[in-house]
Every structure is written in structure tokens, then in C-alpha cells.
Design goal:
Blueprint lengths: L1 H8 L17 H5 L1 H15 L14 H6 L1 H29 L63 H11 L21 H24 L11 H12 L3 E10 L3 E8 L1 E2 L2 E2 L3 E7 L3 H12 L2 H7 L4 H22 L6 E5 L2 E5 L2 E2 L2 E2 L3 H4 L3 H20 L13 E4 L2 E4 L13 H18 L8 H9 L8 H22 L3 E4 L8 E3 L2
This protein binds adenosine-5'-triphosphate and manganese (II) ion.
């Protein structure tokens, strides 16, 4: 009885810093089993270590860390030093690369390899797949579970730095299979507890992130045709509800991959039930084929010189969007622009039930339809030139679709204004393709390519053979160019009146 009173009035010292006075209470209370249990629980919750002790896969405690605190401190200082070194390296890298289109990475010289620092923001996420890591097969010599080796003097405990380090390294095998543990597993590598814990934490967050991404991956199997960054862009469109599903690949061309998608909702705008997703390819090779179109296009000229290839690819998509909008305005049958995100253009799908409309090449029209198609194409070419101030620059039976009993124009990312330094040459080539196609189809009223060129452009070039005709075209283009150089401004249009001067100038 007396003893009980002494204990309960005493203020117990607490190893956790806060001293709470314990209230006096009656013997009945003290003998109560319920109170005993409560006190027991309270005690346990206060005294329990921060983390359960090193079972497979669990975290290590502060106790373990304390045994090698000097070493850890040294490692932390070293880490700090290395990070500062890397920061300096990054500054040097930026300075070295400046605004140059081609940049050099100093990443291999970094002291700290960037797991955590890897840019995981929004669209920059990349995937890792280490399932077939050959090093996974190599196992280290197992350490006895209780940490004892040999007899007598040779007793080692879990606090032994070397044993502990090896064990930590071995335990990394239990990390998620996607987690890149490197080739250290085959070597006698010793990991400090702190490093182990940091890696463990990272492995868990990686697993969570990977699970999130896999959920979204259900979208379709077709996205394998695009790189991870593009895939993420597509997922985002689906997540935002703009698109319902991405259904499959319609075409994989040289310069783009086109998908079919079911439309969703975009704020107040109706998204067509069937959409085409045009993904511009982002590799250097493709970009090289096209730069002749864009680098002389004054609309993009200022920006071109300052951009890296990735941004230039985006400009292709942007160009297609602008050009489609101009055509839309003039009432030319063409895909309707829904949305542009980086190098991905969403537009209405020309076709039905996920089947794209056939190209004029594939449609194999009868004579009557061919005649109708010819007249449509002719008037579209004129409208494009006059009302949209554009030359298609890749017009042929492959870029015209036959849908709903009429011709639709597609693929206008490379289209330029007629006053582009090679605009008239591109127009001539278009006219040659169109003329040859309809002549072969038996449409007798089809003019030859030179006549067609004059009809569309309103110019009156009289040469009766291709070589001279082209020479005249090039002379006109040069005249335009020299005007730009001498007067610092371009001509607004090539004149369309037979009687008037060949060129019209901006005031
Ligand atoms: P290519 O190098 O084959 O010409 P490209 O990269 O220039 O391809 P496009 O010509 O625009 O790309 O599209 C390729 C194909 O994708 C078209 O032939 C057509 O079948 C399909 N396609 C593109 N846009 C649409 C659309 N809006 N609706 C339906 N199908 C489309
Ligand atoms: Mn095409």
C-alpha cells in the first residue's frame, strides 16, 4: 500500500524528453486490470523503437545507426561535398552549352548519380525496366541469421560494420524488381544503414509510382509505337477526359504516327466522337528531311535559328494546326483541329467506325467520281492559294481522302505560303502530281501540269517544256528574294493578272 503511494506520486524521468507528473490514485484503481492494460499500452507506445528491428525488408533503427555514427557523419559530409561539386558541374555544363542547338552532357562526371534528382516532373517521366538484369542471378554469400560466425573470439554481431553492410547489400534483392540496384550485388559491397534506408525508401516510392503508371497503361496496346514522353502526353489527354480511349494505330508514316481515338469532352467544346491523333516523330533524321520547308518560311524563321530539334518538331505540329485552321475557314474539306499539345495534334477523324477513309490512290474511283474529284481538287487548290495563301507542297493522291462522296485534304504540316523562297516550285510539283493522277484516271479535261500551275497561281508562264518552265519559276522566286534583301520586306503575293506586273509588293 505504502509502496504504491510512493511510486504513483513520483515524477518518472522520461527518456523521451517530456516529464509528466502522474496523478495519485486509489488502490482500487491501481488493482484494476483495465487501468493496468492502459498503462502497459501507454508504456509500450512510449518506449517502442522508431522502427521495428531489422526483419527482412524493414527499416533499421536509430540504435543501429548510432554504432557507426562517425562513419555516417563522414559519409554525409562527403555526400554534401559531392552534391556541391555536381551543382558546380551543372553550372559549367549550362555555360558550356549556352544556346547551342547541340548540347553536351557532363552527366558522367557527376559524383552523385541522379536517382532522386532525375526529373520526375509532369511530362519528363521515363520508365526503367530491369527485369532482365543479369546481375540479379548473382547472390552474395549468406550471413547466418543470428549474426554469429565461428567460435569464441570470432563472434560477430549485427552491429559489426562489415557484416551489417554486407547484409544490407544482400537485402536490396528484396526491393521491387523494377528497382535498379546496380551491379553491386555480385561484389563485396557494404552499405551503411543510412544509405540502405534511403534506398529502401526510394524503392518503395518507385513501386508506388510504377503502380500508378501501370494503371494508366490499360489505355491501349497501340501506344507502344511512341516514346514514353509521348505516351504520357496521351495518358494525360485521356485522364483529362478530352479523349475517352485511344484505340489503335491508323498509320505509321515516315514523319508521324496517326492513332484513332474516341473523343471525350474539352471544357465547353464538343470533341468529335472519332478523332485522329497525329504524333510527329521526334528523331533527328526525320527533322532533317523537312527543314527545307520550315527554315525558309518567314512565319517561323525568327524562331527557327534559336530552337533545338525537339522544339522544331513541335513547330511542325503547330504549322499543321495553323494551316488546317486557314483551310477550315475557307471551307475546304479537311480535318477539324481539336487540340494541340506539344508534338501531338488532335483533329477530327476522316472515316467511320475507326476505319480511315481511303486515299484517292486506294479508292479506285469510277470515271464519274474521278471527274467530280478532279473538279473538287482543282477548286481546292485555287482556294488554298487565293484564300488561305498556301501551297500544299505535298499534294498527291496519297494525301487526299475520299470520304462522304467528296475529296478531303490532309497532311498540311509542310504547307507554305506562295512567297516562300521555294513556294512556286512546290506548287509546280503539286500540279504535276495532280495532273498525272487524273490524266491516268481517264479524266480527259485534266490540263497538263504547266496549264494547271497557271490556272492555280494566276501567273502566265508561257514556256512549253518543263525545264524552261521551271527556270522561269525559279527566276520569279529569285526576284522575290532579292526584293527581300534590298528592301527588307517580302512581296505580299505573286500577281495574278496577266496584264499587270509579275509581282505585288507590300507598302
Ligand atoms: P506519310 O509520310 O505516310 O505521308 P504523314 O506523316 O505525312 O504520313 P499524314 O499523311 O498526315 O502523315 O497521315 C498519314 C495517314 O494517316 C493518312 O494517309 C491517313 O490514312 C491517316 N490520317 C491522317 N490524318 C487523318 C485524319 N484526320 N482522319 C483519318 N485518317 C487520317
Ligand atoms: Mn501524308
Amino acid at each position: 500500500m505504502e509502496q504504491v503511494a510512493i511510486i504513483t506520486t513520483e515524477t518518472r524521468p522520461s527518456p523521451w524528453g517530456v516529464n509528466k507528473p502522474v496523478n495519485q490514485c486509489s488502490l482500487a484503481d491501481v488493482m484494476s486490470e483495465q487501468l493496468a492494460r492502459e498503462l502497459q499500452l501507454e508504456e509500450e507506445s512510449h518506449c517502442a523503437p522508431q522502427e521495428a528491428l531489422s526483419d527482412e525488408g524493414s527499416f533499421l533503427t536509430g540504435d543501429d545507426i548510432a554504432t557507426s555514427s562517425d562513419e555516417v557523419l563522414a559519409q554525409m559530409l562527403q555526400m554534401q561535398f559531392d552534391k556541391e561539386y555536381d551543382a558546380q558541374l551543372l553550372r559549367e555544363e549550362r555555360k558550356f552549352n549556352g544556346d547551342s542547338k547541340v548540347s553536351i552532357s557532363f552527366e558522367n562526371y557527376r559524383k552523385v548519380q541522379p536517382y532522386e534528382e532525375s526529373d520526375s516532373s509532369g511530362d519528363e517521366v521515363d520508365w526503367q525496366d530491369t527485369r532482365h538484369d543479369p546481375y540479379k542471378a548473382v547472390k552474395p554469400t549468406p550471413t547466418p541469421k543470428k549474426g554469429f560466425i565461428g567460435k569464441g573470439k570470432d563472434i560477430t554481431t549485427k552491429h559489426d560494420e562489415v557484416v551489417c553492410g554486407r547484409k544490407n547489400t544482400a537485402r536490396m534483392e528484396n526491393f521491387a524488381p523494377e528497382f535498379q540496384v546496380g551491379d553491386g550485388i555480385g561484389m563485396d559491397l557494404k552499405l551503411s544503414n543510412q544509405v540502405f534506408n534511403a534506398l529502401k525508401q526510394h524503392s518503395i516510392s518507385e513501386q508506388r509510382r510504377s503502380a500508378r503508371l501501370h494503371d494508366k497503361k490499360e489505355v491501349s496496346t497501340a501506344e507502344k509505337a511512341v516514346d514514353p514522353k509521348t505516351r504520357l502526353l496521351l495518358y494525360k489527354m485521356v485522364n483529362a477526359g478530352t479523349l475517352d480511349t485511344i484505340n489503335g494505330c491508323v498509320s505509321t508514316g515516315k514523319e508521324s504516327v496517326v492513332f484513332h481515338a474516341s473523343g471525350g469532352r474539352l471544357e465547353d467544346q464538343e470533341v468529335p466522337a472519332e478523332c485522329a491523333l497525329k504524333v510527329f516523330k521526334t528523331t533527328l533524321n526525320e527533322f532533317k528531311n523537312r527543314d527545307k520547308y520550315i527554315k525558309d518560311d518567314y512565319r517561323f524563321k525568327d524562331r527557327f535559328s534559336k530552337l533545338n530539334p525537339r522544339k522544331i518538331i513541335r513547330m511542325w505540329a503547330e504549322k499543321e494546326k495553323h494551316n488546317l485552321k486557314r483551310m477550315q475557314k475557307a471551307g475546304i474539306p479537311c480535318p477539324e483541329v481539336v487540340l494541340l499539345k506539344k508534338h501531338v495534334l488532335v483533329m477530327s477523324f476522316i472515316g467511320k467506325d475507326q476505319v480511315p477513309a481511303p486515299t484517292l490512290k486506294e479508292a479506285k474511283l469510277g470515271l464519274e467520281d474521278s471527274i467530280q474529284a478532279y473538279h473538287e481538287v482543282l477548286s481546292m487548290m485555287k482556294q488554298l492559294y487565293d484564300e488561305c495563301n498556301l501551297v500544299h507542297a505535298d499534294l498527291s493522291e496519297y494525301n487526299m481522302l475520299w470520304h462522304d462522296g467528296k475529296v478531303w485534304l490532309i497532311d498540311v504540316s509542310q504547307s507554305v505560303e506562295p512567297t516562300h523562297p521555294h513556294g512556286l516550285e512546290f506548287l509546280y510539283r503539286d500540279c504535276r502530281n495532280v495532273s498525272q493522277f487524273f490524266q491516268k484516271a481517264g479524266v480527259t479535261e485534266t490540263p497538263n501540269e504547266r496549264e494547271l500551275f497557271n490556272i492555280v497561281s494566276g501567273l502566265n508562264i508561257t514556256s512549253d517544256n518543263q525545264a524552261d518552265f521551271l527556270a522561269e519559276i525559279e527566276a520569279l522566286e529569285k526576284l522575290n528574294e532579292s526584293h527581300v534583301q534590298n528592301h527588307g520586306k517580302k512581296i505580299s503575293a505573286f500577281h495574278k493578272d496577266d496584264e499587270g506586273p509579275p509581282l505585288m509588293y507590300d507598302e
